[in-house]
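Sample pair:
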Amino acid sequence: MGEFELLERDGLARLGRFATPHGTIQTPALLPVVHPDAARQPVAPRELRRRFGLGAVITSAYITYRTPALRPVAEEKGIHGLLDFDGPVMTDSGAFQQHAYGRIEVGPEEIDAFQRRIGSDIATVLDVFVEPGASEQEARAGVDATIERARTARPLHRGLLAVPVQGGLYPELRRRSAAEASALGDVLAVGGVVPLMERYRFADLARAILAARPALAPERAVHLFGTGHPMTFAFAALFGVDLFDSSAYLKFARRGDLLFSHGTVAIDDLRERTCRCALCEAMPLPEVAHLPPAERERRIAEHNLLTSAAEVAEVRQAIRDGALWELVERRAANHPALLAGLRATIRGTRVFLPTEPESRRSFRVTGATSGLRPCVIRFLAHKDGWADGRGPFRTHPRVPLVPGALRSTPSRCRDGSELWWEVLTTFGPVPLELTELYPVGCAVGFEEFDDGGAPPAGPDLAGLDVEAGTDWTDAWTERHRDALLEWLYGRESAGALAALGLTGERSRRTGRLRALRWDGRKAFTIGNDGVPRPTWLGAQLLHRTLRYPAKRIIVQPDAEDFVAQGRSLFSRFVAGGDSSLVPGASALLIDADDHLLAVGRLLLAPPEMGRMPRGVAVRVTAHLRAPEEPEEPEGPAQAAGDPGLPPNLQP
């Protein structure tokens, strides 16, 4: 129990499975806060699962313990019997009441034992709530006390234990708390943040999570206490939060407020049918406003739950599509406080880079912060290194990108120096050879739809030797090939691969480079992200030209045969590899003696591999024991070594 399995991801954000005694939670998941007293819970817990698809809940062990009418029932029937709910139940231990009322009337060992007796699926250590305004000394004392309580609780729990991460607004304390919690907890619960969200201090919230995030163990589920409003769910998921709870659906309903992904609306202000969900189709919101108080509250709470459930689904789909940053930017545009939180997040880009995918299917510009996403920062830094020493560069906004138009693009200036073109893109000037790569090649910005009425223009050829009518397409394809290989594999390996005579294949419709071939056989395929992906032949070529351990993942002996047959490489069978690889990148899968077994694409980042007890680390795309593609002609036979490889690359 408690093992987290990652299924899909978009950077730190992840779709996963988290096993509990009462079922598996599909993450990211919203856990509605339910009151243990049914009389104070207008929507029954069992209805949360049946009608709203919310399969796990969180309730207060402290309130249950302190309420004479509830405690004996919970101890006799268990927390699931008290709630009449058969799904996973997480219990809080009273830290929020400490924040709200200044003190609680229970000790950490006492409430811990009570949670064990009532059968909580995920019990929470009673932490010391560190207020945002606490001094560093107070915050340190809170962290120390919480860690000590967790150490005491851990040996006593056979079940799942949530260990809160405290530290207030002090980054070093947040990091230490996260590291200690990672060694003790099954769920790492970022706490002490409710006041920040209540006061819309999302910039401070971002800084607190950014400080803790690198120290949070990747194999644990991450919970964010008090996430609340649905407009914050995407923001939380961006940091890799797997579980978030919310009592906002009910708190806002009590004061007559409707929750939407774009903000909050008072029901008494509504005159139009602004929501067409199933509930509001049955009874329009303006009519709900005039119901008797109890029925009105229940109806608004149900609407808020449905809105919250829909937003969780929106977040999950965005992770599947690789579009979570876009969703966060759209949500941030709805409130200045969220925009401040996004800007604070961007300043912590380095936290996202180790798990930032090599590419995505698309890049849509949604606002001023789009050009500051981690993928752009990484691309521009790599571009500067790639372009260093290559000048002179000539920049022009209309350098043709279709190879057939390159009839007047020579490669040298009159003084004999090599010429390099730059194109003005959404992200600034980019060398022409790199413009098909993600994110540039996939970017859709406002410039696509508004060129200011400027007439089309060709490159400025002043100072160049131009041979009229010369077709530079083949030379450009070779240059494009060399640039992509160097971008991915470095100058030395790119030179060795180019020397083999790899030829480029372009799309007849778009002119984009779509494949690299050797002796008629496809060695690399190139998708819309512009990244060459090796086939089995390409993997063999790379294996001979890349120095160990570059672009390699080492497979443990128990899994070698499975991987060589094309089975995915699971995390627990990874023995090591190139730490510079990122999710989505292609990697050579090898044994301990550097024998090539397969090639695949990473789901996990190398630092995560081996730590995740369940799930896939690398999805195999081509492998040792697969037959060659039937439509491809065979390469020249070799007397010894690997069939089809050029003589200079034979072992």
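The two ends are 47 Å apart (CA to CA).
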